[in-house]
Amino acid sequence: MTGTARQPAPPHVDVKARLAAAVEAHRAEILELSHRIHANPEEAFEEHQAATWVAEAVGRHGFDVEHPAGRLATAVRGVRRGGRGPDGPRIGILAEYDALPGLGHGCGHNTMAASGVGAAIALASIADELPGEIVFLGTPAEERGSGKQFMLDDGLFDGLDAALLFHPGDKTQVDCVLLASEDVEVTFRGLQAHAAADPWMGRNALDALVLLFTGIGLWRQQLPHHARVHGIVIEGGTAANIIPDRAVGRFMIRSSDQAYYESMRERFRSIAEGAAAAASVEVDVEFSGGSTTMKDNAVLRERFRANLEAHGLVVVPVDPANLGSSDMGNVSLALPTIHPSIAICDEGVPGHSILFRDAAATPRADEVTLLAATLVAETAFDLFADPALVEAAWDEFRST
Ligand SMILES: [Zn+2]
To answer: Against a cut of 0.90, is the pTM above it?
Structure first.
């Protein structure tokens, strides 16, 4: 060493550089996981391979792993205790891995699984220096069924001080606004008859489903800008020469206004019952429980923003006309939560599309996956290093 005095880096900067280096050192392992999940898409509640791979990955890095965790076969919970004792924050690092029916990873959840594992790996590399616990949660069924609500009900988030999760997008956004959302299955039951010889003997369940779509279409004219209703036909009869005795549609209703959303459920039910009455058939309307609006935690969000901007990324504001839903909303009602997005493709590529699916396995998506792992780990470290920040996050949570 020469006598030239060099200013030592602030300790946080030093640790954050080590977190980034740990992600880089495990680059191949993290990206191989992302690509493997992308190439083997599994739908909600059926993510058996992805959950196993994720559980094995965090297990290799010193986490005590429960799999299955709670009632869901594809949920994972891994805990890595800090070396400085149990008195400290418990920070949740989340990972999603479900795909879309008929499309594959059109929402890019492979990058979320891999970045969550990457963040867990990075934090594990400094775990001996941390107080508290790093808690990895593999969370199934985001696209349908709100798996995180089951995990909340099963106590798998109990004791956590924060829930951190990144989502890929076509824009980089730190704020998160979500629409409350619910799946609704509507089944109409009528009576079969020969469609030419004795149609007057039948009661046409498909007619009722057509009327339901028509009623929703007319209703949509009066909906405010923050509401959405959309659906598909699941069953619409079996042959053109049989009056359909059964027709099934699957719909989603959504709004960014939780109270308005509750009123939409009743209106939807009325339209379905009206359609059934008009076609003289029976109807079942089954709401499956859904996801809520988001209580975005500003204390956590601003830490994430600072970390992201320190890596040179530019954040754009959320467009209120361009919102989706997530069961991260449900988590956000239980504890301080953030759900930022980072662009993996050019702006304007639609989510839930073949274009977005293909974008989720490109070199650009890979770099974002690694960066997201680092950013989530850095934000978690900010909380481990500063108990006042955890308190501030909880104070905000309790007061809003
Ligand atoms: Zn998604």
So the answer is: yes
